[in-house]
Amino acid sequence: MAAILESGWLYLITHFSDFQLASLGSFFLHESVFFLSGLPFIYLERAGLLNKYKIQTKNNSLAAQEKCITRLLLYHIGVNLPLMIASYPFFRFMGLRSSLPFPSWKVVLSQIIFYFILEDFVFYWGHRILHTKWLYKHVHSVHHEYATPFGLTSEYAHPAEILFLGFATIIGPAITGPHLITLWLWMVLRVLETVEAHCGYHFPWSLSNFLPVYGGADFHDYHHRLLYTKSGNYSSTFVYMDWIFGTDKGYRKLKALKCDIVEDDGKQT
User: Fold this and answer.
1) Mean pLDDT over residues 252-267, rounded?
2) Which residues neighbour 229 within 8 Å (Cβ) at sequence distance 6 or greater?
């Protein structure tokens, strides 16, 4: 498997420059993973499939879904792509490389874990700032146009927010100057995580059922369906920041209430 991966990577670095791979390659990888993982949730909602796992009963209109996709394409091409191109010299200066050999799995794993922890910390505080009155009204309210989120709404945001919270995603790699394959792996995992958090479904196989520190769709969906001053649940990936600073109290009370109702129903039957 390693030999096949190295052979494929050798083809890439032979036929494309570092700039092309780090900027254009990263953009195409992001778009592919984002839309391939997010579009199925639109189909599930339209077809009414797996409704028993849907967190909210409300569905988005066809017009709302099409508006989201159109705006996303505009933002990705008009904001994300230029940002990836413009940031390449800085990442190169910080040590980003694409040459073989690959870094060891221990280096890759330690960097990915560091990126998740740092991103979650920075995102939490940036997100809380966006929920102050002025910034919410003029910037963050765009993202909250969808009180019933679906996968693709994860990146539906005001251009200023894309730049502001996007900093949380790139700060880890910017500090460490990783191998390009590590950067791509981080990008894929981060996209899959944020799409899952906005998907609107809580499945039996959802990661939050097996990893208590992970937030997931149920945790973030609560954030979307409340008023901005009372929402809480500001973290992107984990739950401990909200727990430490007490911004998940409403969510935990609701969870406890639901558990009590289930227990009472069980006793009655």
Assistant:
1) 71
2) 131
